[in-house]
């Protein structure tokens, strides 16, 4: 008989088997094996919210196979992922497989390396029921919200909609930002920008107006800017102040889940889901140069910034060897996690710092290499010496000769690197370095020549829409959800058409705005960020054994039901109409008038009879331009990657397509066909014509 280890992922089985040998058999549960069936609520609200779990459809054979393996095993260890969700999966497995919940049969593998696996096997413990209950509470809360609010939202807006405890708050953040953008009123302002030349060094540098003799430092229009420019005609410029200093820049801490998602988005262009998929692969194990598979990073779902002393010693030795003693800080650097962080695991780090990204590159996919390099560099840099910079700030006075009463002050600042420290490897501010002003060494009282002085007009800009990285940061800062859930939250709100991607930005759809406004009006507390964050705190208290989960769920449910009852009364007979719902196009399958929906690639027509009728078809956006090849209509289309192009409505009979924009108000003076715009030119795409002219140009009417 052998010892049986049950893990979640089949990828891990090969790696772990390589370290434990023939006395162990490793099998995978393939994630969750038991859950609340979707067809009904399956939570007994009258009996302490008892959940009614069932084996997930399609996993019946797997459960039978696991039972057979347990029957043959000498010992059984549950080695699901070392987090709240993994603890719950172990509990479900133990319940299904009739394992003793009082036995120490739960093991944690914080890293899939020989050291990490042996440490886990040597330190088994009982399943932590507090963690399990926290996961159950979260699952029950989400089910209650989904099954109680979703029908109400569907009835009031459109059939088939859903509401979620956390997803609705995420959508609200995006909708609220869109409302800020719409309400924003741009204001004009001006800057006076100068280029100065020291009389000795001749090194040109830039400075900006910061105030006049009255202390006024804002220029709101061209008239004010011109007055200052007139005042400074023939002015003399003198350095009135030189402040030199030393700035010490500390490295960023190693990654946790949230910061990894943010930096991978900003630096690599990875969506959160892609980041977590690749991180999972690096954690579970990869064969490097044909050797046995090993995990390259520690567990990637963590809030913690803690680093093991073993890893610290190994990294210090590596830094000394590769960079020298001066790159190791005099005192060890420790990072403080945020107050409500779950500290069960270390920060995300490489399991072996001597395995550099370049050494591993040949064995990794492009995505794996890029993410591993990011994690490796960030971790090594976090334990390196501080960067030291010499800073300089100068103030310059400009005034007419002999007139000290009226003057303008200019300021310039910059720095030079005294010791690069950790920035030799990784700098979180590297994207901004090019914008730094270079200032030569100047002395107080030194006179300067003016090389250029001009006024520049600007307008205040509205806040930007969220990128995935910015949304992840906002969710974390507001305590909404957990970093491990952010990828699924973003995927959900996009797949349910509440939000669409506009390039790298997240934009709410009309459906998302209507749903959010309904919930804000009728259920303000339940999509309030502070309330949702407090729920996360309550869940943490359950996981720490400080609070019972039934009591927590009960309090939430009672308030939800009271609010829902009032909303139903207040909105009886009221239905919210979406503009995008209205079309006069009949569905050719059932006859109902089709509605316009917004999906991944933009808007399309769909039958409102879904799910009985699942008919959809493209929404044709006419351009008013005729096809230069066959005379059909040119319509707007979108590529699989979401890029707009134009093609003939007679496709596939006619294969005309172009990236050039149709110009429906102008026709070619040579052949009478519509023109297209390309790089500032109006061109004719009629075969054999070749007409082109600069745009804009005088409108030409057809002789027809």
For the biggest sheet, the summary is: 6 strands, antiparallel, barrel
What is the mean predicted local confidence, pLDDT? 89
Cα gyration radius (Å)? 32 Å
Supply the CATH superfamily name of the largest domain. Answer: Topoisomerase I, domain 2
**Which term fits the overall shape?**
globular
- Which percent range fits the helix content? 25-40%
Find the CATH topology of the largest domain.
Topoisomerase I, domain 2
Distance between the termini: 92 Å
What can you see in these coordinates?
- This protein is an alpha+beta fold.
- The protein is about 35% helix and about 20% strand.
- Strand 21 and strand 22 form a beta hairpin.
- The longest helix is centred in the first third of the chain and has 28 residues, at about 130-155.
- The chain starts with a strand and ends in a 10-residue tail after the last strand.
- Residues about 430-435 and about 695-704 have low confidence and may be disordered.
For the structure shown, list the relevant keywords.
single chain; 704 residues; alpha+beta; Rossmann fold; Topoisomerase I, domain 2; Topoisomerase I, domain 3; six-stranded antiparallel beta barrel; 17 helices; 33% helix; globular; disordered C terminus
